[in-house]
Amino acid sequence: MSAEVKSHLTELLTRALAKVAPQQPGSLISLERPKQAQHGDFSSPAAMQLARALKRNPRELALELVAALPPSEWLERAEVAGSGFINLRVRPAAKQHIVKTILAEGDRYGRADRAGGRPVMVEFVSANPTGPLHVGHGRQAALGDAIGALLESQGWRVTREFYYNDAGAQIRNLGLSVQARIREKLGVRAEFPADGYHGDYVREIAEKYLDAGNTDGEDLEAVTRFAVAELRREQDLDLQAFGVRFDSYYLESSLYRDGRVQKAVQALIDSGKAFEQDGALWLKTTEYGDDKDRVMRKSDGAYTYFVPDVAYHIAKWERGFTRAINIQGSDHHSTVTRVRAGLQAASAKWERRIPQGYPDYVLHKMVTVMKGGEEMKISKRAGSYVTLRELIDEVGRDAVRFFLLSRKADADFVFDIDLAKSQSEENPVYYVQYAHARICSVLEQWRTQFGGEDRAFPVTSALNAANFDSLRNVDLGPLGGARELALLQRLGEYAEILENAAAELAPHQIVFYLRELAGEFHSYYNAERILVAEAPLRSARLALCLAVRQVLRNGLSLLGVSQPEKM
RNA sequence: GCGCCCGUAGCUCAGGGGAUAGAGUGAUGGCCUCCGAAGCCAUAGGUCGCGCGUUCGAUUCGCGCCGGGCGCGCCA
User: Fold this and answer.
1) Could you say which of A39, A181, A412, A508 is the most buried, measured as most Cβ atoms within 10 Å of its Cβ?
2) ipTM
3) Which CATH class is domain A427-559?
């Protein structure tokens, strides 16, 4: 049922309230969806909420409100229940209308231009090019991509950005690690860096470096450049395999090259919040809510990571992103206050100050991978962690995406490989995809069995929605069964779910919605036959199926999960 | 110790002032001469961590405990 119906009912109650209690402002009416079907399609606790202010008995007030409801074509019945709930039931026609809306809007159904094309940057993954991507990056990639899609659905102009930390100490560390492996290979006595990278991939890179025609690894800069290029390429391939694409890549090194780091430091000094102590330059971040002041420039003259971070976010702001969302592991949550503090200080004297809550953060908890009943902590290639690639190879891209999005970001995630693998056929993602494939199958049956009877039917048809035009204007009146009404109601909720998921940056809400929709469709399918002999009922049911398929498609594609016609 | 997050069915998790707290999975029993059984139906499983407040009403909000995770560098 559509939002249209809901606002209509709210209006009816508001008008009733105006009659019963003229002194009350009408905005107090709230409508909710009862958990139990017997309580109607909508329910309002308004009478109970207002009883005290009006010094009235809630039940009596509810009865008066019901009596004062203006007549409506959509409203079937209104009754008072419990301690004062007003339960509303709408006529089937009010619910049936959603099918036409969905079929007319197609891929656009559920979308709304709330943001009017305003720009927003979603930054995610941002892995250092020092190793293959791990499962945590996978969670971030799935989240970032889906959150981007959610925002796009609400009219935001989204830029997905990957920030490469290619200038820090860990890059130097990578170079030294590869160099040590090269020397080992050549039989030169080599000391492996104390906190070097131990994964096999470092050896692989060393080998490739030599294969590329280099005779030794003594040019550290060349080795490092080579290693970074290799790892970036590998990460890109992993992301490609995961179906995640970025609009732009931003290099930390460019912040130094462009002088943005220098400018940021200057802005922070000009703010008057910087001070020298023990040979280092500090920022009074405590004045912006941090629990201790932070070093900007170490006594050895190098900047801490904090400074390029601030410079980077100033760049985001200056690039026109008045809204920015960073997706990070919750182990980095201490940077939130710090970066915001830096931005507050740096922009304190600007004409367009950066707002206090800039940027937004979505922090996600860790992913634990279970295999054989035990936590899987190492992989052959990476050594100390499970890679995204391994996960994709084991359980498939769609399943990994769907799984990783099936919990809210701030919940710990236990990814049970055995479950996803051994029961790959009972995987939740297949449950939803199966509903989609089933509908496609029914449509195909219809084409071959009834194509001639049911008007102009393109025999060449692929299972393309455009080829089912004849279903767009069928009479939906025959859709009156309990399961049909439940499906209609569920279909109508999609837009609202989408809006809410986008507002809360919570794609898992879409996952749960799709499971429910698919579940209701499966129940319906098992209980009723779609391709019945009576043409009017058959057409109406097919139209409903087509609408369900459309919403499944819209939701799955938002999550980056494919929508197979056959499985 | 301080800060942030989390304690809901055996397990993995939704929900988030409203009526009898829900899914998936696991367990048990049914459903294919019928559009796809990767499905459906039924049964079973709970002091919503504990306590005190706010409220007509608390699993939901506030405070305090208990338990777990993460963070608390002149690392990123």
Assistant:
1) A181
2) 0.95
3) mainly alpha
